[in-house]
Design brief:
By secondary structure, the protein is an alpha+beta fold. Among the domains are: 65 residues, Recoverin, domain 1; 47 residues, no CATH class. Helix content is 49%, strand content 13%. The chain has 12 helices and 9 strands. The chain has a 3-stranded antiparallel beta sheet, with no helix packed on it. A two-stranded antiparallel sheet has the order 1-3. The radius of gyration is 20 Å and the shape is elongated.
Length: 235
Amino acid sequence: MTANKDLNILKQLINYKIGKSKFHETIYAFICNNYISIDEEKKLRAVFRYMDKKEKNSISKEDLKSCLNEINIYLSNEEFNNIFKLLDANQSDYIEYQEFLRAACDKKSLLTEENLKNTFLALSGGEEKESINREDIKKFIFHDSNIQDNILNEYLEQFGMKLDEKMNFEQFSDIIKNNKNLNNELNEEEKKEENNINNEIKNDNNKVKKKKVVEIKGISIIEENENEEYNSNEI
């Protein structure tokens, strides 16, 4: 273990979940790129440099697997490939620094009231508005390009915004902080996942033993305590 490695940061990577929609991911990326603290960015860059074994300014599959194994996190090939695919947003077969930064940063520390207000102001085009509409979102995400309406509509529909609907700051803050749709309707898969968070499993002594089911890249991994090694072969 070196000063450049941080167990929590590596666990953050394998527990990374993409935003509910492209809109969420765009907002997360904007906040991370603009409002991450200097100290945290330095810490994350140090970890990235440590993981970049071949000094190519990117993390390969071999680099990531090696670092995970160093801290006793072992995953099957399928599990590992699913994780790597989500981290590798542009599908280049490498995790580049911006991709690493978005996955490894602590979203809770970034999604402060101040940062969200500044982001909402940016969405509003720098004007203090009570609400934003589809045109504001279009300018923010696609700038002044002549983007086709069907592409913009895909962004809007993914997080539940209708074409003629407006979104105020409270709604914006809620959907970003809690990774929710604007209409907050859970589909059947989300309901199932929510019901599986705290399963009660009976042990051999007929006593009720609580186990936490952790979703990693859509894969359920059962953890009994925080010190338990991640070994997919034992699950």
